[in-house]
Design brief:
Layout lengths: L3 E4 L2 H9 L10 E5 L6 E8 L3 H11 L12 H21 L3 E6 L2 E6 L4 H10 L1
Antiparallel strand pairs: 1-3, 2-3, 4-5
Helix pairs in contact: 1-2
Length: 126
């Protein structure tokens, strides 16, 4: 009988895949929706047949201080890149959208949520 392991952590799944873990053939991803709350959970399922993917999974699930790999190991760079991506996405989500309005060769940058009267007043200055 073949054994499997699963993770709901996209970073762990991405790193394990990059290091040779193979998604199981049947239903490699499951999406569960809780009927009472509507909360969704995605699980990635891998075959436990390869040591590289299993070690990548274990390493990604450890804290930085508990990692067993060499300081220059590729898994550390993969993990750092994935965590940096999360940080950058968070910054993008928090950044206030700015409208760029061009009139007569000039450009006005104004917050998208600015009051309409402020937008009109600024546009009149162009």
């Amino acid at each position: 009988m073949e054994s499997f392991w699963g993770t709901t952590n996209l970073k762990v799944a991405a790193a394990a895949t990059a290091f040779g873990a193979t998604l199981r053939q049947l239903d490699p991803v499951t999406r569960i929706v809780k009927a009472d709350t509507g909360q969704r959970q995605v699980t990635f399922w891998f075959s436990s047949s390869g040591p590289d993917g299993d070690e990548a999974r274990a390493e990604m699930e450890r804290t930085w201080g508990e990692m067993k790999s060499d300081k220059e190991s590729a898994i550390r760079f993969v993990r750092a890149a994935l965590e940096n991506r999360e940080t950058l996405l968070g910054l993008v989500k928090r950044a206030e959208p700015i409208l760029s309005i061009q009139r007569g060769g000039q450009t006005l940058l104004v917050p998208e949520k600015a009051r309409p009267e402020l937008k009109r007043a600024l546009l009149n200055k162009l």
